[in-house]
Write a structure and sequence with these properties.
The complex is a heterotetramer, with 2 copies of chain A (81 residues) and 2 copies of chain B (150 residues). Chain A has a single domain, classed as Ubiquitin-like (UB roll), CATH 3.10.20.30. Chain A is 28% helix and 28% strand. Chain A has 3 helices and 7 strands, in the order E-H-E-E-H-H-E-E-E-E. Chain A has a 5-stranded mixed β-sheet with strand order 2-1-7-4-5. A two-stranded antiparallel sheet of chain A has the order 3-6. Chain A is globular. The termini of chain A are far apart. In chain A, 30% of the residues are buried. Chain B is α+β, with helices and mostly antiparallel strands and 150 residues long. Chain B has a single domain, classed as Alpha-Beta Complex (Aldehyde Oxidoreductase, domain 3). Chain B contains 4 helices and 10 strands; from the N terminus they run E-H-E-E-E-E-H-E-E-E-H-E-E-H. In chain B, strands 1-6-8-2 form a 4-stranded mixed β-sheet, with helices on both faces. A 4-stranded antiparallel β-sheet of chain B has the order 7-5-9-10, with no helix packed on it. A two-stranded antiparallel ribbon of chain B has the order 3-4. Classes of the chains: A alpha+beta (81), B alpha+beta (150). Strand 2 of chain B pairs antiparallel with strand 2 of chain C, so a sheet runs across the interface.
Chain lengths: 81, 150, 150, 81
């Protein structure tokens, strides 16, 4: 599973991307796993901050499923245009 | 149906001309330019840096164009969005829509901007006298998108 | 707040640039170009001749701009409308609106076009293989204007 | 009173403008006076064709008053833009 972080979330975590070995889960499940790392991870993924997720480059809701080889991106609400 | 993500500036007049002269059955050409303001949320802003999610950005914008095309009787669309560092009055985004009639062209152009604002993966960071800050998403942008739901 | 009635063509890109660079607090620039189609009501159209009511035309367009300005939080507006004889793909009309935010700019631009269509004294005569004919006003234009009533 | 005719109405009447001496009236009253000229005037102003009126270069409704020295224009529904 490839994980990507953007904008303020990337800065808050100090990580841009990582490869992780995790079983199939959901967006919500993956966020809980990341929050459980503690420190800045808990701070960013504790559910208080608005975080959007994209699975294989498509915006999805929190309940969306994630397969072991998916590309998953987390980021704050977008502000383009 | 064209999408460009680029650091360099664009010539809006040339882009509009190219689209409007592509067919002789075009009656209406709507366009939108978003440009950088020198003030935001009560603070002077000297520069703005746009980050995006390469790969997803192109897909998201193409998907927005497809939705507009499915929804309105329009001929063609163009979206150009810049990334990198910009200064006040710099152009950020251009949307052009051509159609036989103005109602469809106006609706599709505004729809594209409203969807781009809430679903295309761009993020803005502003440089102000108080330091750098990420631009916060606006509730009004979510509301603007929600208007288009059936 | 500018109104031009002219026989010569206009450079839409240059006009849009001039308006959008006039202030550094502009965030949104909407524009509309109306252009001549090669078909109308099922007939090929080779040329179109625009007649107007000198004096009233300028007043009517300035009044439409004033109404738009009173109604939305916009910075500036431009209307250029051509008269005389045009051929397919020729530009007929340009409307440009600048504002801090896109919602106001889109609404004001569409409002100006809808009001222009029903209250500015222009009339189109088309040359077709079957001879010349005056373009008939559309009920849909009245309906488009009626949407803006409070 | 100055009277102006535009577009298909001008072509139908064969007149572009004229100066007439008439007392104050209303748009509707003036149209009845013009229709009473008979021929093409009756044809154009008999009420079957949609005709718009402007008094001193401002669009008005049929009931609008007209003074003796006004500029009054008659024309079909506009088709610009």
């Amino acid at each position: 599973m490839k994980l990507l972080y953007f904008a303020s979330l990337r800065e808050g975590l100090g990580v841009e991307s990582e490869e992780v070995k995790l079983p199939a889960t959901s967006v919500k499940g993956l966020m809980a796993t990341l929050a459980a790392r503690g420190g800045v991870w808990q701070e960013q993924f504790d559910g208080c901050k608005q975080i959007r997720a994209a699975v294989n480059q498509v915006l999805v809701a929190d309940g969306a499923p994630i397969q072991a080889d998916d590309e998953v991106a987390f980021f704050p609400p977008v502000t383009g245009g | 149906m064209t999408v460009c993500i680029q650091t360099q500036d664009f010539d809006a007049g040339a882009e509009i001309s190219a689209l409007r002269l592509a067919r002789s059955d075009i009656g209406a050409v709507t366009s939108f330019i978003g440009q950088m303001r020198d003030m935001n949320d009560g603070s002077v802003v000297s520069t703005m840096t746009l980050e995006h999610y390469p790969g997803m950005t192109e897909k998201a914008l193409q998907d927005i164009e497809s939705q507009a095309k499915a929804r309105w009787d329009i001929f063609d669309t163009l979206i150009i969005h810049r990334i990198g560092t910009l200064k006040p009055t710099d152009q950020i985004v251009l949307v052009v829509v051509t159609s036989a009639h103005r109602g469809e062209a106006f609706a599709a152009c505004e729809f594209i901007m409203d969807y781009l604002k809430t679903s295309a993966p761009f993020w803005k960071k502003e440089a102000t006298p108080q330091g750098e800050r990420w631009v916060e998403a606006k509730v009004s942008d979510d509301e603007a998108q929600a208007r288009w739901k059936v």
